[in-house]
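The methods section describes the discrete structure representation at length, but only in general terms. The central task, working out the structure tokens from the amino acid sequence alone, is never made concrete. Nothing conveys this as quickly as seeing an actual entry. For illustration, here is how one protein appears when written out as sequence plus structure tokens:
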Amino acid sequence: CDMAAIHALGQRFGFRIIEDASHAIGGKYQGMPVGGCRFSDITVFSFHPVKIITTGEGGMALTNDPVLAAKMARLRSHGITRDPSEFIGFSDFQSSGFSLHVSEAGPWYYQQQDLGFNYRMTDIQAALGLSQMRRLEEFVARRVRISQRYDEMLTGLPLATPFQRTDASSAWHLYVIRLRLDRCKMSHADSFRALRAAGIGVNLHYIPVYLQPYYRNLGFAAKHCPEAERYYDEAISLPMFSGLTEDQQAEVVRSTKSVLQP
């Protein structure tokens, strides 16, 4: 995204920005790592099993705002704090004849200040994530090389390769081609089926969310975002993971050429 422009609009109109960087850990924008919250209030990463690094499930939210950081830390653990400096003072709490002044509370004392959640990551998950963080640059470098080889090897086919902003460096979680259907010998769906039949694990990321039943029930309908629907009609995600070998990638390209070449 053009995060600088979005941030400028936020400053102008007074809205807060949560940056969805679920696919972007290890990427850069304007020379700085994604997640630094230079142009957002909170940046969110996903550590789902198919992401660039994983903790088995879950994710991470980053912020430079200490107030937001404290609020998120409370919300992930039932809205509870055990930090006396954060306690909300009250002169006298009475319930069923029980009376307690905050200053009289023992070291066991805590406060539930929000209706929070049980969103704590386990220590085992955190250890898995930290072990992969040490290899993040290695993983991303490999993905960059795979994307470059795709760009080179797919030249001349009736498709468009992924767009890359000049002021950004993608972490290449996905590699999505867009079919030039007027030049393909098969439909979008038939091309997808043919690649799957050839043993290529293609996918489609993603269906426009407002076409799902939940959002349709809220009043959304087809043609609400025509560009998103045009993308959906053309997109196919080719295999992209750091362990993809050159031989495997060559097989993906061979099958893609067989399916798409007129």
